[in-house]
Amino acid sequence: MKNFASKINRFLKSEDGPTAVEYAVMLALIIVVCLGAITSIGSSASGTFSSVAGQL
User: What distance in Å separates the CA atoms of residue 35 and residue 41, rounded to the nearest whole number?
Assistant: First the structure.
């Protein structure tokens, strides 16, 4: 049990955990921005295709 407590204490003191969390947050933000851009481009392309199809 003492070994387990020392491992947890070492993990909390190390900076690997916060660094991993920072990378996860950055990845989540990048994914949200990409999804927003893809949705916007998709809507714009759909409108363009509809306009062209209507003119044909």
Answer: 10
